[in-house]
Amino acid sequence: MNVYDSERMGEALNTAGYHPVDTPDKADMVILNTCHIREKAAEKVYSELGRLKKLKDINENMIIGVAGCVAQAEGEEMLSRAPTVDLVFGPQTFQALPEMLEELADNRADALEENGHIKKAKGVVRTSFPAEEKFTTLFETPRQPLVRSPAAFVTVQEGCDKFCTFCVVPYTRGAEVSRAAAEIEAEVVSLAQKGVSEITLLGQNVNAWLDAEENDMGLGQLLRRLAQVDGIERLRYTTSHPRDMDDALIEAHADLPELMPYLHLPVQAGSDKTLKAMNRKHTAEDYIELVDRIRAARPDIALSSDFIVGFPGETEEDFTATLDLVKRVTYAQAYSFKYSPRPGTPASEEEQIAEDVKSERLARLQDVLNAQQVTFNASQTNETLEVLFEKQGKKVGQMVGRSPYLQTVHVDADETVIGRILPVKIEKAHANSLSGRISSI
Ligand code: 5AD
Ligand code: SF4
């Protein structure tokens, strides 16, 4: 979501006369688009700001902005904690960037007049955003996409009403809002015309997407409609909640060849007691049954998940239930985290699990998940996979693409393959990627 939002900021700034450079030292403005989901992500912002301050000491005209959920959560406070910051704006306010820049320019002019120096100029803060306005201003402006890759993101839904007890998203991103089907389709058409062939639909709760005006159209139907768009060959969506995987969406996996056989379906934990305390509103068995139904619809689907270990109250027995669930489901890949208490969330007020217990459980879980990922990748050796080539690799003469299962695939080829979907015979499987040879061009 932040990658998409950053692209949108780039577009808004492009219209205001800015263009991207490769490194911060060449920039007139640097914006950190931040994440508040775990403490570690939030802390990184301040260490990064420390580095940027050094550049600003050399170029005092440089503008430093902090966007996203840390900005949303800290607001004005950020200006006093890090005086080097000029702009603070929340995740739903990036369209206002040109206007914020004008305000900053005025503040700088005032400071120059009053103190003979722009250093003391007042920063600009935009964090509040009424829900109705979020819907219209966030999405109404037609995009001028700066397409750099044949695979693009499109936000279809924002915010979350689920209130899992560990999570800040409902507070930082606000209430669930869906974008209208016609607008989404228009954006997909415009991306396809610019050469995009793969679209990933985004939302914190993407499968809760609903176009209430179009006969309660859900994500399954939306995917069917987007699969018809000329030039769109691959569709994906992320992130889903198990409770919103309805029959129409599962059927779409059975029927639509464009819908890629990969699904990120976070379960967080395997113990019913922990799931209840997390307010996930489903049991481990519900999740396993759901996975069985999805696999019946699309047998080769690769599954991915998020896990939290060391949630308050998690016993060794509860943790073992997570390991058992992982062994029953088997994942192609996964993300796992130590529980991180977040300000304002219910679970942060509970008695906490010791850090060394969390670390030990995380290591055990990751051993199992990594082994499953290695096995999954190895199962593709000698297979031929359709790969969409996206960009150059790190090595000279190497191109990088994605398999239908979202694996990174490296081949030796020239740039003419970028943007094409080509069959690749997989020769080697690594822990995090595959490599092979293009079978035919
Ligand atoms: N601590 C650890 N992990 C968290 N996540 C969300 N909130 C927390 C937290 N407080 C994880 C969940 C979620 C993913 C995006 O981040 O697993 O699915
Ligand atoms: Fe956070 Fe996802 Fe739960 Fe919403 S559904 S509260 S975004 S973990």
TrEMBL record:
Residue ranges of every copy of the MTTase N-terminal domain listed in the record: 1-106
Cofactor note: Binds 2 [4Fe-4S] clusters. One cluster is coordinated with 3 cysteines and an exchangeable S-adenosyl-L-methionine.
Any one GO cellular component localisation term in the record: cytosol
Entry binding sites for [4Fe-4S] cluster: 160, 164, 167
Gene3D superfamilies tied to this protein: Methylthiotransferase, N-terminal domain, tm_1862 like domain
Pfam families: Radical_SAM, TRAM, UPF0004
EC number: 2.8.4.3
Catalytic function, reaction form: N(6)-dimethylallyladenosine(37) in tRNA + (sulfur carrier)-SH + AH2 + 2 S-adenosyl-L-methionine = 2-methylsulfanyl-N(6)-dimethylallyladenosine(37) in tRNA + (sulfur carrier)-H + 5'-deoxyadenosine + L-methionine + A + S-adenosyl-L-homocysteine + 2 H(+)
Keywords on record: 4Fe-4S, Aminopeptidase, Cytoplasm, Hydrolase, Iron, Iron-sulfur, Metal-binding, Protease, S-adenosyl-L-methionine, Transferase, tRNA processing
Radical SAM core domain sequence ranges: 146-377
Enzyme class: transferase
Requisite cofactors: [4Fe-4S] cluster
Residue ranges occupied by any TRAM domain in the UniProt entry: 378-440
Listed GO MF terms: 4 iron, 4 sulfur cluster binding; aminopeptidase activity; metal ion binding; tRNA-2-methylthio-N(6)-dimethylallyladenosine(37) synthase activity
InterPro entries: Elp3/MiaA/NifB-like_rSAM (IPR006638), Methylthiotransferase (IPR005839), Methylthiotransferase_CS (IPR020612), Methylthiotransferase_N (IPR013848), Methylthiotransferase_N_sf (IPR038135), MiaB_methiolase (IPR006463), rSAM (IPR007197), rSAM_horseshoe (IPR023404)
Subcellular compartments: Cytoplasm
Known function: Catalyzes the methylthiolation of N6-(dimethylallyl)adenosine (i(6)A), leading to the formation of 2-methylthio-N6-(dimethylallyl)adenosine (ms(2)i(6)A) at position 37 in tRNAs that read codons beginning with uridine.
Known partners and oligomeric status: Monomer.
Family that this chain belongs to: Belongs to the methylthiotransferase family. MiaB subfamily.
NCBIfam families for the chain: miaB-methiolase, MiaB/RimO family radical SAM methylthiotransferase
Protein name as it appears in the record: tRNA-2-methylthio-N(6)-dimethylallyladenosine synthase
Source organism of this protein record: Candidatus Micropelagius thuwalensis
Gene name for this UniProt entry: miaB
